[in-house]
Amino acid sequence: MNDSSWGAPPRGGYWGPPDQGRAPAGPAGPAYDGRDAQRTRPMPVVPGVPAGGHAGGGAGGHAGADQDDREPGTARLSGPLFLDEMPQEPMPSPPPVAPQPPESPEPSSSQARQKKRAGRDLRAAIGVGVALGAVIIASLFIWKAAFVGVVVVAVVVGLWELTSRLAERKSIKAPLVPVALGGAAMVVAGYVRGAEGAWVAMALTALAVLVWRMTEPPEGYLKDVTAGVFAAFYVPFLATFVALMLAAEDGPQRVLAFLLLTVVSDTGAYAVGWRFGRRKLAPRISPGKTREGLVGAVTFAMAAGALCMEFLIHGGTWWQGLLLGLAVAASATLGDLGESMIKRDLGIKDMGTLLPGHGGIMDRLDSLLPTAPVVWLLLVVFVGAG
User: Fold this and answer.
1) 72 phi and psi, to 5 degrees?
2) 21 vs 1: CA distance, rounded Å
3) Residues 34, 22 contacting (CB under 8 angstroms)
4) DSSP string, 233-247
5) What is d(CA 334, CA 144) in angstroms, rounded to the nearest whole number?
6) Over the stretch 275-323, which tens digit does the pLDDT of each residue have?
7) What pTM was estimated for this model as a whole?
8) Cα 127 to Cα 130: distance, rounded to the nearest angstrom
9) Phi, psi at residue 29, to the nearest 5°?
10) What Rg value do the Cα atoms of the chain yield, rounded?
11) Which of 61, 79, 139, 363 lies 20 to 30 angstroms, CA to CA, from 352?
12) 216 CB contacts (<8 Å, ≥6 apart)?
């Protein structure tokens, strides 16, 4: 490679002043021209300067011409002096980012607290509860027969919910017609004829279920009639004990005590369990129930029982109320767990959606149904049948 590709030979600069290139003439031979050596001496490789003689750091002229413009004795390397002067490859643009959907606003602390406390619509639940309470109190103390009608309606709707869920989730077709008619007859017979009338109506209802199911093919007969007899016992027969309490002279007071104790037990379990609950009571059946909640149910129910027996039930005493409250807390908790077991087996949360904030009728009867025979029996033992 010769310097012809870099332009005219420089007179100074990088290779020094011109007079340094010549050797003095003498007898040893011809004069030495330093410029001849420059023609054969390899040129230094300067990074970043393309072949062809154009300097990267000048105004576009040749290297020699660029050096001629400088004062003698000064050195200049062709090309950039610093790395940041070197031509840089354009940085690749980042890949486009897909637009993210706007995040939903987090619920406020009050909304989160309300959801944690109830898990349902509190306003709807309170409104429905107040309306049901007004209907029960009005029918209970104005005309007792009207309250029997309220019980019958609750029983029939509860049976419809139960049999519908069995058919949907388990393909069990419990005969609704004979169970509903027999259930209504049980409640009325219990109020009119007492316990004997209720037992007779229960037996006839079971027989009607067996006969009614015979009109369909035999496949599934056993499970269908078993479910029908179970539904007749679980809902209307247990509800008949409310009618037995109502039939006494102080029937409205007994029924009111029964309702108050059950509601107070559930409320105490909920309040104490929500505030202090740590240890699960039956996690495989109902994960929300705690042992601390059970203690709250017992405490509240015993206190309410003492007050009811002392001031509401004629002839009762406070210590009887303590026992009554203890029994109510136990039966209400077992009833709640029993229906939770049924709903877990069916794979549902609620039996129905008839009552906003509460679920279905059966979701309100779960604690009341098994508690009714317990309260009726203890009241008969403590103060008589009335």
Assistant:
1) -60, 145
2) 20
3) yes
4) IIIIIHHHHHHHHHT
5) 29
6) 999 999 999 999 889 999 999 999 999 999 999 999 999 999 999 999 9
7) 0.69
8) 5
9) 160, -170
10) 49
11) 139
12) 173
